[in-house]
Write a structure and sequence with these properties.
Structural class of chain B: alpha/beta
Oligomer: heterodimer
Number of domains of chain A: 2
Strand content of chain A: 15-25%
Radius of gyration of chain B: 18 Å
Number of strands of chain B: 9
Number of strands of chain A: 15
Distance between the termini of chain A: 46 Å
Largest sheet of chain A: 7 strands, mixed
Order of helices and strands of chain B: HEEHEHHEEEHHEHEHHE
Structural class of chain A: alpha/beta
Shape of chain A: globular
Chain lengths: 350, 251
């Protein structure tokens, strides 16, 4: 039976990570995600794991690199400016094919910005952020329940494909309390083995972990093999939710906190007889290009709504490829639009 | 009967070294120190538990030279990577091998905090007073007045800072078990450095905590000196700026 608890999105992700078998956590304080660090400090040691407050975001992600190399499930969490500092380490994790879960409880930016909810880190999360040709599996929860569910999924996908996974949440989701049905505890000993891990070269040849290959053809081949895994992820792991899309005239595309608000917009619109639907991407990478493209064949407009100047909007336009109008509505700086403001925008395209 | 049957083998490649050729310049002390480390791993019988962390710098390939598990860290972050490995699996013997640019410039924060936490790791710190791999730029350890490609008139301590005394800085901390500075400029000092590396590793095996072995090394290419002259320079000049000996021994 699943435990049901009232908890914040931050706590839900932390508890779900422990239940998924995460046994090392390295982090650094930054608002609005301090509850994750504090939850791990209190609860991870009781689960037999290691919590360590690092001297910096840079150190924290590199501690994850070491723990991941040792074959142990590992996680770090931060918020936008801190995630920027982790980007070098994330590139190395990607280049060394190491699994790791990174939580970004995003805030307003750029620079120090503020601590209010924002989605200005979409480009950084989905298009690189660090250097080199790499991808992260990027998951975007819209409720505390989904935050818990996706935290568990992030560990499984990251291990399965040896690709770091990032959960892109925001300050509203992190701080909001909701009832959460928690998954059962998983014993790390029962997780699939990692024969590549650094466990000591006993009875086998040494294992080496590096993102380094001086010979261009060798590095090229490593990249080609990694990108073949990315293609596999794109084919198998796209996740999204559709609400009232069957007869929709205007399709909203929104994720995370904005996706949740967009559900209210759909409900209120339908109450007033407006044929509005929603496609909510759950995986931001791999992005649901194909389902958006299919719906674009039969709607008048695909309206992207984001807490940014229009970052996911670029992917939506790539999906639609001119099949219909692709307007955008967004707010920045931690301002969150109300359902009625968005509904007014929907009306302009009916 | 051939003559070899009567000969006793007195010197051999350590078992913990792979056959992979070193990429160091001729006359550089890195190769010697790598062999010393491999010999210490053999002597303690820890090859099957050891993880070698290679830095960014001339030792970037170090993870492939040991018949041990190995990992390559990003520039300066080896102490953080070591922390993650050791915390995730305390049974591992974790050795971080780093140069002066890596450990004492870009990695200063990770170095000091890992030492201050007393992470049960062994740090081998190669102090050759220069960035070797990138072509001989000024390092944090470059001596006052020493020329490098990025201080062509010599290091002016008024604008470029003083040579960073890493071992002395780490020795001020409460946690480290063993902090020492050694040199490789003559056979006597090679023997002493070998003992220091063995002690640092033994302390990790015995659970005594963090060790740092700073090793004064030559960079004949970067210093533009023949190897023998470079070793004399260490004896006559470098050891004056960086005194040798144990600074902390809480074993």
């Amino acid at each position: 039976m699943a435990d049901r608890q009232l908890m914040t999105g931050n706590e839900a992700m932390a508890e779900a990570a422990i239940r998924a078998g995460c046994r090392t956590y390295f982090g650094y304080p930054i608002t609005p995600q301090n509850e994750i660090l504090e939850y791990m400090a209190a609860h991870l040691p009781r689960a037999g794991g290691t919590f360590l407050q690092a001297e910096s975001e840079v150190a924290a992600i590199n501690m994850c690199y070491g723990a991941a190399a040792a074959g142990v499930r590992t996680m770090t969490s931060s918020s936008s400016p801190g995630v920027s500092l982790k980007m070098e380490g994330i590139s190395y994790l990607a280049g060394a094919d190491l699994p790791c879960v990174i939580l970004n409880v995003a805030r307003g930016g750029p620079g120090l910005g503020n601590i209010a909810p924002a989605q200005g880190d979409y480009f950084q999360a989905t298009k690189g952020g660090g250097h080199g040709d790499y991808r992260l599996i990027v998951l975007a929860p819209s409720t505390a329940q989904e935050a818990a569910d996706l935290a568990g999924l992030a560990f499984d996908l990251s291990d399965q494909y040896r690709v770091p996974a990032l959960i892109l949440a925001d300050g509203m989701l992190g701080q909001m309390m909701e009832p959460v049905a928690l998954p059962p505890h998983r014993d790390p000993a029962t997780l699939p083995p990692k024969p590549w891990a650094l466990t000591g070269a006993k009875g086998r040849d040494p294992n080496y972990i590096a993102s380094f290959a001086l010979e261009p053809t060798v590095l090229r081949d490593l990249n080609v093999r990694r990108h073949a895994r990315y293609r596999e992820i794109e084919a198998r792991e796209v996740r999204w939710e559709e609400v009232a899309t069957a007869d929709a005239e205007v399709l909203l595309v929104a994720y995370g906190t904005m996706g949740r608000i967009a559900k209210t917009v759909v409900r209120r619109g339908r109450e007033r007889g407006i044929r509005v639907g929603l496609l909510r991407p759950i995986t931001l990478w791999p992005f649901p290009y194909s389902p958006i493209r299919k719906l674009a064949e039969r709607v008048r407009a695909v309206l992207t709504v984001e807490l940014s100047a229009g970052q996911m909007w670029e992917d939506v336009r790539l999906a639609v490829e001119g099949r219909c109008a692709t307007p955008f509505y967004g707010e920045m700086g931690g301002v969150v639009p109300t359902p009625s403001e968005i509904l007014t925008e929907v009306m302009r395209h009916v | 009967m051939s003559s070899t049957d009567t000969m006793t083998k007195v010197f051999a490649r350590p078992r913990s070294l792979t056959e992979k050729p070193f990429t160091y310049c001729p006359g550089c002390d890195h190769g010697l120190l790598t062999r010393i480390l491999a010999g210490a791993i053999d002597k303690l019988g820890i090859q099957e538990r050891t993880v070698i962390i290679a830095p960014v710098g001339c030792a970037v390939f170090a993870y492939e030279w040991f018949r041990c598990d190995g990992i390559q860290a990003s520039h300066g972050r080896a102490a953080a990577v070591a922390t993650g490995l050791k915390r995730a699996n305390p049974d591992l013997i974790v050795i971080s091998y780093q140069g002066d640019g890596d450990l004492a410039a870009i990695g200063t924060a990770e170095t000091i905090h890992a030492a201050n936490r007393g992470e049960a790791i062994t740090v081998i710190f190669v102090n050759n007073q220069i960035y070797g791999m990138t072509g001989g730029q000024m390092a944090p350890t470059t001596l006052a007045g020493q020329r490098a490609t990025s201080c062509p008139e010599g290091r002016d301590v008024r604008t470029m800072g003083h040579p960073l005394p890493v071992a002395e800085m780490i020795a001020t901390l409460a946690a480290p078990a063993y902090v020492t500075r050694q040199s490789l400029h003559d056979p006597k000092h090679v023997a002493q450095a070998t003992k220091a590396v063995e002690k640092a590793l033994r302390y990790q095996v015995e659970g005594k905590g963090y060790s740092l072995v700073e090793v004064l090394s030559t960079c004949p290419t970067g210093w533009r000196m023949p190897p023998a002259v470079a070793h004399k320079h260490v004896a006559d000049v470098v050891t004056g700026a960086f005194p040798l000996g144990d600074l902390v021994d809480r074993g």
